[in-house]
């Protein structure tokens, strides 16, 4: 659905140039929720605006739904943008328009017949749960309700792609979960491709299928969220998970501190118990957590492993055979 090839964006004139993006290449598959994660100044907003050519890249290639966006004539580009919805951090609603009026606006611009507009607005109000707010004005809405209006407006022309520019950054945690749940429901019901940019790790873990990590305008890594989180040493793992507190524990002489990340079925199977019984080692659980990431169970355990050195090595090899990546932690 989206393919960027060596996209760079440079602002300023020669001698005072700032590179917001440097040779960024990524692919977003149809129907997936793809996150672009990065801190302020990483180039996230520039990247998302390059996709619909609100910002024209200095170099590189942008393809959306198979079309070379940079090769389109102005009229063709306007039509292509009708297939790309966009929602914003600060909602960008018209304060003088009702909820229904805000949702109808892009359809009026596109020249839809009045009756079709009314029908489409009704559909969207039901979809985002705001049927009772049709005649309210933005000033009468909560932040979460405003964002739902923004989502409905972006969906009005039936786009195949939805871009989200830090859409939950201005919301409290509970409202954020509600809006993310709505986006996931829309993704599943409509088969809509969603690309969202965020600096919030929880957003990536809650909703994204795949992710790209952007730092100082450069792509650091990209891949499936669950796979990257399950691999110690990836940048996403480092950003989302602080090392478990190995220094807080007293370890027996000869004991070894081991941290393991579990995912999918392994998060619910007695892998550590099986290991301990099979190789005659003791695994003393010190710390751990269990959560859902993109609908998949993931867990992290820190335990002390004691026993004969050869048996401990065999136990660690067993964990690796199970597709896990045990990491030894130094202790004080």
TrEMBL record:
Alphabetical keyword list: Amino-acid transport, ATP-binding, Cell membrane, Membrane, Nucleotide-binding, Translocase, Transport
Keyword flag Cell membrane: yes
Gene Ontology MF term list: ATP binding
Domain ABC transporter, chain residue ranges per copy: 2-241
A Pfam family matched in the record: NIL
Alphabetical list of Gene3D superfamilies matching this protein: 3.30.70.260, P-loop containing nucleotide triphosphate hydrolases
SMART domains on file: AAA (SM00382), NIL (SM00930)
Record-given protein name: ATP-binding cassette domain-containing protein
Species name: Archangium minus
Lineage, highest ranks first: Bacteria, Pseudomonadati, Myxococcota, Myxococcia, Myxococcales
């Amino acid at each position: 659905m989206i393919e960027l090839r060596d996209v760079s964006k440079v602002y300023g004139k020669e001698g005072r140039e700032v590179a917001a993006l440097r040779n960024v290449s990524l692919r977003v598959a149809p129907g997936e929720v793809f996150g672009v994660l990065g801190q302020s100044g990483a180039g996230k907003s520039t990247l998302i605006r390059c996709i619909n050519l609100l910002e024209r890249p200095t170099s590189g290639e942008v393809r959306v739904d198979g079309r070379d966006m940079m090769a389109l004539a102005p009229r063709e580009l306007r039509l292509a943008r009708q297939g790309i919805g966009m929602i914003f951090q600060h909602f960008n609603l018209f304060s003088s328009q009702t909820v229904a009026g805000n949702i109808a606006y892009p359809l009026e611009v596109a020249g839809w017949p009045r009756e079709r507009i009314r029908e489409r607005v009704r559909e969207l109000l039901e979809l985002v749960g705001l049927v009772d707010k049709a005649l309210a004005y933005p000033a009468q809405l909560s932040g979460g309700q405003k964002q739902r209006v923004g989502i409905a407006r972006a969906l009005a022309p039936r786009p195949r792609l939805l871009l989200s520019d830090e859409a939950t950054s201005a919301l409290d945690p509970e409202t954020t979960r509600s809006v993310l749940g709505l986006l996931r429901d829309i993704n599943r019901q409509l088969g809509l491709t969603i690309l969202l940019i965020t600096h919030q790790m929880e957003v990536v873990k809650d909703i994204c299928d795949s992710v790209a990590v952007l730092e100082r305008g450069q792509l650091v890594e990209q891949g499936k969220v669950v796979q990257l989180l399950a691999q110690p040493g990836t940048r996403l793992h480092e950003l989302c998970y602080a090392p478990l507190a190995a220094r807080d524990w007293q370890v027996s002489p000869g004991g070894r501190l081991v941290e393991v990340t579990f995912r999918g079925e392994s998060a619910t199977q007695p892998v550590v118990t099986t290991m301990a019984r099979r190789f005659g080692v003791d695994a003393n659980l010190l710390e751990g957590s269990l959560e859902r990431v993109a609908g998949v169970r993931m867990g992290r355990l820190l335990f002390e492993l004691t026993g004969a050195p050869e048996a401990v090595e065999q136990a660690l090899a067993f964990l690796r055979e199970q597709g896990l990546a045990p990491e030894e932690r130094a202790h004080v």
